[in-house]
Specification:
Bound molecules: beta-D-glucopyranose
Radius of gyration: 22 Å
Number of helices: 12
Shape: elongated
Length: 350
């Protein structure tokens, strides 16, 4: 029993607060304890790790407003079975709201059943379950972003770059030879981002020739490998790399650096996310652009919703799409505004 208690205590990052100031909502009513259990698909994912850090910060602020919060965070190491077990554990440990970033977005049945049985609402995030699964229970929510918008924005950024710089069409054939680096095949962001980026380029009058594509599962090292293969299949031909996220765009660049390409022989690279490393790369010109995946906004929406669900207060202040969905907008990022996302003052204001 004692061992179990110690284990449980070890598992839990406890942030307990008594009765504090009241800037904002007054969280002092009985039952205002929020015990949030978070599980996410893989600890090595750059974007998710940053999103979860933002979520911790958001809960810290709610705590400063007087809410009593306990947070448990688990990474599922890419295994749905592990994630199902984590959900069971967190429910047993007394979580009254769960935030789940599914390993397999098409397989949430077990998790939904476990949660429904104990009446613990679930906020899915970033990896969107299919509609049929979301309809299984009214206490299922989703927080994320609109994949289509990120693809369109990436396409617009690339079209603008091609229009502005004649050097991108290095062989001067009036067409842009491109490759795509894709995330996990079943992920809503993968197909939709690729399709919309390419269609937007075409709509903007850019002639394209697709040379190849590689699946790199959001991962920088895998992207480097795929890119090495594509470079050797199409030596000197690739002019544009569209990557479904920043880590893969950077992996593509790693491949060129490993092969000792000179700067003038490089294609242009576009990512999506605006992670710390992604923004730095846009700032110093290694990436031509990215699209900001608003992790702060998503984390804030998750925290607000988790608090509202657990306390029964404040849900009416939240605006949902289709009653249970929250989508945060993306923003285009170039070297002109990348610094502001990193908290830097624009040079014009200095
Ligand atoms: C992000 C990727 C991340 C993936 C994980 C996407 O929305 O852009 O960077 O790896 O979500 O689910």
């Amino acid at each position: 029993m004692r061992g179990k208690r110690i284990r449980t205590a070890g598992l839990v990052i406890c942030m307990s607060v008594m009765f504090l100031c009241a800037c904002g909502r007054d969280w002092t009513a009985p039952g205002d304890k929020v015990h949030v259990g978070v599980t996410f698909y893989d600890q090595s994912d750059t974007f998710l790790s940053e999103l979860i850090n933002c979520f911790r910060e958001q809960l810290d602020s709610l705590q400063e407003e007087g809410l009593d919060i306990v947070l448990t965070v688990r990474g599922a190491s890419g295994s749905q079975q592990t994630q199902d077990d984590q959900v069971q554990e967190m429910i047993n440990a007394g979580c009254n709201v769960l935030c789940v970033n599914l390993v397999d977005r098409t397989d949430p049945s077990e998790i939904i059943e476990l949660a429904r049985e104990k009446n613990v609402p679930i906020i899915f995030f970033n990896r969107e379950p299919v509609t049929e699964d979301m309809q299984r229970w009214e206490e299922l929510y989703y927080v994320g972003a609109d994949a289509r918008q990120s693809g369109v924005m990436q396409g617009e950024l690339a079209a603008e770059a091609v229009r502005k710089s004649a050097q991108i069409d290095r062989n001067r054939d009036g067409r842009i030879q491109y490759v795509v680096l894709e995330g996990e095949p079943g992920h809503q962001d993968t197909i939709i981002r690729t399709e919309n980026a390419v269609n937007t380029l075409k709509k903007n009058g850019i002639e394209l020739e697709k040379l190849s594509f590689g699946i790199a599962n959001w991962n920088r090292a895998q992207a480097q490998n795929r890119m090495m293969q594509m470079i050797s299949q199409h030596p000197g031909k690739i002019e544009l790399v569209l990557a479904n996220n920043d880590d893969m765009a950077l992996g593509a660049l790693d491949a060129y650096q490993k092969l000792n390409f000179t700067e003038t022989a490089l294609p242009v690279f576009f990512g999506i996310d605006g992670t710390g490393v992604g923004l730095e790369a846009v700032l110093d010109g290694r990436l031509a652009g990215t699209v900001y995946n608003d992790k702060e906004g998503q984390a804030a929406a998750m925290a607000k919703l988790a608090a509202a669900i657990a306390t029964g207060e404040g849900k009416d202040d939240i605006s949902f799409k289709n009653k249970r969905y929250i989508y945060l907008p993306y923003t285009k990022v170039t070297s002109d505004n990348a610094g502001s996302f990193l908290g830097e003052t624009p040079s014009a204001l200095q």
